[in-house]
Amino acid sequence: MTRNPPPIDLRAAPAIEVLGAHKHYGALHAVDGIDLRVARGEILGLIGHNGAGKSTLFKMILGLTPTTSGEIRVGGTSVSGRDFRTARRHLGYLPENVVLYDNLSGLETLRFFARLKAAPLAQCAALLDQVGLAHAGNRPVREYSKGMRQRLGFAQALLGNPQVLLLDEPTNGLDPQAIRDFYATLRRLQAQGVTIVITSHILAELQERVDRLAILASGRLQALGSVQALRERAHMPLAIDLVLAPADVPAAQQAVARLPGITPLPTPEGLRLTCPRELKVATLVALAPLGTRLADVQIHEPSLEDVYFGLREL
After folding, report:
1. Domain count of the chain?
2. Sign of torsion, CA 182 184 185 189?
C-alpha cells in the first residue's frame, strides 16, 4: 500500500523562500543573488528573456541543481537539507520540454510517475479525465499530438496533490480552449491553497491570471509586484480613445491643450490621447464639457508586454 508523505507546512512560513541565491557555471552567473518570497496560495508569474535564469531557478527550488551560495526553502524546509527528499514529493513540476516514453500509454505513463512519486495509483485515471485525455488513456504516447503530450505532462505534475506547482511554459502546444481550461484548473487549485509559479513567453496570457510578477534579467530579479504596481513603476502613459464626429475633433484637442504631456493623435473613430497616468482624472474633467458629443471614451492601460519592455529600458 502506498503511503503519502507528511505534508510540508506552508502555514508557518512562505511557500517558497529564495534567500540570496546564486548559481554560477564558471564565469556564467545563471542566477545572481535572487531574493524572492512566494506566499501560500499565490500565483506568481516568472518572466524574462531566454537565459534570464528562470529554468535554473526552478531546478534550484526543486533541489535538482545545488546553489553556489545562498539558501532556498520550501515550506520552511531547506532544499539542501535531509528532510527535503520527503518534502519534494509535495512539489509538482512541469518542465518546458516534456519528455515521455512513446511506447507507454497515457495511463501507463501516469502510473509510472505515480510509483516514482509514491502517489496513489487511483489518481491516474481521474487526472487523465481532468486534463481532457480520458478518451486517449489507453493509446500509446507516440500517437499523441504536442498539445496532448503537454496535457499529459500537466497531469503528471498534479500527481500526489502537490502543495507547490512549478510550471515552465505549460501552455506550449495548447489550443485556446485547452489554455482556458488549464487556467481554470489553476484557479481551482489556488482556491485549495496550492502555490503556483508559472513561466510563459506569451505575456498576454499572464496579464490577468497572476497575483504578482517577477521579472528576471541576466540572473537577477529586476522587478516584482502586481501588474498594476509594475505599470506604475514603469511610468508608462495611458491611452485614452475618444469616439466622436470629425467635426468635434478640434474641440476635443482644444479641451486638453493646456494639460502638459498630452499627445493627441487623430484616429478613424475620433482621437487618441497619450496621457501621463497622473493626469487621467484631469483629462477626463477637461473633456466633460464636450458632453454628448463624446460617443464613447475608452481608457487603455499599458499591456504587460509594454510594461516588460519599459522596465527593461529603465
Report:
1. 2
2. positive
